[in-house]
Amino acid sequence: xxxxxxxxxxxxxxxxxxARTAWEVLTCYPGLHAVVLHRCAHWCWTHGLKWPGRFISHxxxxxxxxxxxxxxxxxxxxFFDHAMGVVxxxxxxxxxxxxxxxxxxxxxxxxxxxxxxxPTLGKDxxxxxxxxVLGGFTVGDGAKVGSNAVVTKPVPAGATAVxxxxxxxxxxxxxxxxxxxxxxxxxxxGVTQNDDPLSQxxxxxxxxxxxxxxxxxxxxxxxxxxxxxxxxxxxVPGDAARCEHFEAExxxxxxxx
Length: 257
Prior knowledge:
Blueprint: H1 2-15, H2 22-28, H3 30-46, H4 50-64, E1 67-68, E2 73-74, E3 79-80, E4 87-88, E5 93-94, E6 99-100, E7 105-107, E8 120-121, E9 126-127, E10 132-134, E11 138-139, E12 144-145, E13 150-151, E14 160-162, E15 167-169, H5 171-184, H6 188-191, H7 197-226, H8 240-243, H9 248-254
Parallel strand pairs: 1-4, 2-5, 3-6, 4-7, 5-8, 6-9, 7-10, 8-11, 9-12, 10-13, 12-14
Antiparallel strand pairs: 14-15
Helix pairs in contact: 3-4
C-alpha cells in the first residue's frame, strides 16, 4: 500500500512543476486524496459492501470536489490535476499514467444496467479541462483529448480529439501540414487547430498549396527535360521558386492576423 502511495506522489512531482515536496503533495493535493479514498471505496464495492462504498465516494466528493463512482477502475500513477468538478462513472476504466484535468466527465449514454456505459482510457491518456468523454468506447494509449472536447466515439492510440463534436487529428497529417505552413511564415498549430470556419479554410489553403507546389515541381522537371536553352526572361525553369513566392503576410492581413 505504501509503495503504491509513494508511486502516486512521485507521479505528481514528475508532472506538476508547482509541486515542491512529497509532504506538500500528500497534504495539499485533492487529486491524490480522491485516488486514495477511491481505492477504499472500490474495495468495499467489489467485496459486496455497496452502501459503504457509495458513502466513502460521497464523502470524497464533499472533501475534494471529485466524484468517482466506487465501481470505476483506476490504474497506477493516475493524476487528477486540480480536478474540481471531475465526474467518473460506474463502468469507467482509467489506465496507468493518465492525467485528467478539472471539469472532466467520463460519462455514459445508456440507461441500461449491467452494460458497459462509460469510457475506457488506455495508458498515458491526457484529458483536458472541461472535456466530456461519453459512452462505452476506448480511448487508445497515449491519446489526448483537448479542452472542452465532446468525445462520443473511439479515439485511436496516439491521436488527438478536439472540438464539439470531437474530430480526430492524425499526428502524421499534422506534421506534414506544419512543415508546409512553416515555409509560408506561420505556424499551423497556432492558427489552424480551432474548429471555426476560418481555421478550416486555412487548413484547406495549406493542403492545397502543398499539392500545387508538388505539381508545379513535376511540371518544371518535365520542361527541363524538353528544353536546354535559357528563355529571354530573367526566370528559368529551375529558378521559378525565386521569382514567385507565397504572400503569407498578405494572407495574414486578410484573416486579421
